[in-house]
Design a protein that fits this description.
This protein has 346 residues and is an all-beta fold. The radius of gyration is 18 Å and the shape is globular. Mean pLDDT is 88; it is low at 1-27 and 342-346. The protein has one helix spanning 4-11, and strands spanning 23-25, 32-38, 45-50, 56-60, 66-71, 76-82, 88-96, 99-105, 107-108, 112-113, 119-124, 131-137, 144-151, 154-159, 164-170, 176-182, 199-205, 208-213, 218-223, 236-240, 248-250, 256-261, 266-271, 284-288, 298-303, 311-316, 334-339. 52% of the residues are buried. Strand 5 (66-71) and strand 6 form a beta hairpin. It has one helix and 27 strands. InterPro entries: 6-blade_b-propeller_TolB-like, Hetero-Diels-Alderase-like.
Length: 346
Amino acid sequence: MRSLRSLVPLLFTASSLATNSSYSPVSHPQVVTRVVYQFPKPTWLENIATLRNGTLITGILGSSAEVHLVDPTTNTASLLHSFSGFNSVLGITELDTDIWAVITANYSPTDGPTLGSGVVWKIDLQNSDVKVDKIIELKDAGMANGLTTLNPQTLLFADSFHGNIGRVTLSPNGSATYTVALTGTNLDANPNGTMPLGANGLKYAAPFLYWTNTWESRFVRAPIDAQTGERVGEDEVLDEEQGVYDDLVVARDGKTAYVVRPYAKTLVEIALPVKKGEKAGAPRFVVGGTGSTVLPGATAATFGRGSDRGVLYVSTQGGNTGDNGEGVTLEGGKIVAVYLNGVGAC
């Protein structure tokens, strides 16, 4: 199995070092970026989401399973919770109002992921006292990576090693069950290959589940049932063979997806089909690029939820000196604000 050194750049997941938040223009004349907050080197930020109050929530991969809050108005960060017994946070999603779900797991610097080590947790932020409870251990899943909310009783995650979409169903009595919701060639993994990960980043934006497939260099969506998460129509390949895609976010109007490309150090936008028979638009460069230090090792993206609804916040893992994630880490992971002329998101 591949070592973590080569696996981690495909996953794309502490706080005492603030940075200068000055603005810097990029190639697109209407896009401006700024560093909101940078963590110490080496810190790998694997995921990012936005709380109802506008605060950003992000998780660390490969060193400590920590969840941090970052305030984009004050450019400060604080530790929300550290999960003992784990070294990575692989998914974050809002399950219900101010109630969040996260996936933790373990990774070895030499042997890659510990299969079946994933655990889903609930973080309750409804009161000043943060409450953290275990939802379920995913012992039968290979590599739980990425997390999205289908409804307040159902979570979906990508099993990147087994090449499927897992489902966690919560019951009123507090118990939970794990089943496989989706399989198929567009989710397949290649565990014995040089690019082992199948389904990777995923987001539910009704009526579609969107996901990236790392091994297949593919961005896909499928219409799914809002209660079960199972397919109710055919897959649509929105883009393929454009390099490695990781995580994504879908605009609130459902017309555009923004996808991060870690190796290419870029954020791209893809116009989505809105009518039957339409095809997705070609990927359009937004920011970053070869040699750029704006988004080194981009891992995930989220939109603001307040007056910053037109701002896309991108997390990074710090980048590497070599190609395909090899070599020395360039810098600490950071959160970058990308200003997109008022486009909102779901």
